[in-house]
Amino acid sequence: MKQNSRARILGRIRQALLDAPPSPEPARDYLTAHTSDDEAAILDLLHENLADYRANVHRTTETDLPALVAELLDRHGANTIAVPPGLPAAWLSETTAQQQHHDANSPLTPHELDTTHAVVTSCALAIAETGTIVLDGGPGQGRRALTLVPDLHICVVRAKDQLVGSVPQALPRLDPTRPQTWISGPSATSDIELDRVEGVHGPRQLDVVIVTS
């Protein structure tokens, strides 16, 4: 009986709407970013938000990048590093740490990853408004485990072509079929009393190196 009453009511509504004019399309002129278009301002915002998430942020040039990477690895006492396929060899040219290369023909085993102190990667994009680094497994990034198991992740961001202001600006530049990892600071969680614990689901330390020129 209830079903029949429902059907009658819906039928009357449909009949009443037959001659109704089509509804106008709503305007969707949403802002795609809340930042200015100034590159320096976007870069400063990324730096600020990354630091707010407790990432260590560094700025350098392409020329000085290898020396800075070597310094950071030494500062953290990282004697072994995982190297994803496609990472520019020049980035690690000045470090004395043992390099463990991961590729399809010779992948690092879970045991090898567990005994690796650090990983150095590139990224797909960096989003200033949210202080987020996006990895998608592309060249210089490797599979997801490489950036989840080692205790230190050093991620290099090329400001010229990998920096965007907002998430809406980032999405059209990402391939939705790729395995994306969105990182906002080092891995952290907290219990019901809000006691923060780092390193539970990924690296305890995240160093982001922004290459500005």
List the main descriptive attributes of the protein structure presented here.
213 residues; alpha/beta; Rossmann fold; 6-stranded parallel sheet; 4-stranded mixed sheet; 6 helices; 12 strands; 25% helix; elongated
Helix percent band: 10-25%
How many E strands?
Answer: 12
Overall shape: elongated
CATH architecture: 3-Layer(aba) Sandwich
Tell me the strand percentage band.
15-25%
CATH superfamily: NagB/RpiA/CoA transferase-like
How many structural domains can be distinguished in the coordinates?
Answer: 1
Give the termini distance in whole angstroms. 74 Å
Strand order within the widest beta sheet:
1-12-7-4-2-3
Q: Helix/strand/pairing class, anyone? A: alpha/beta
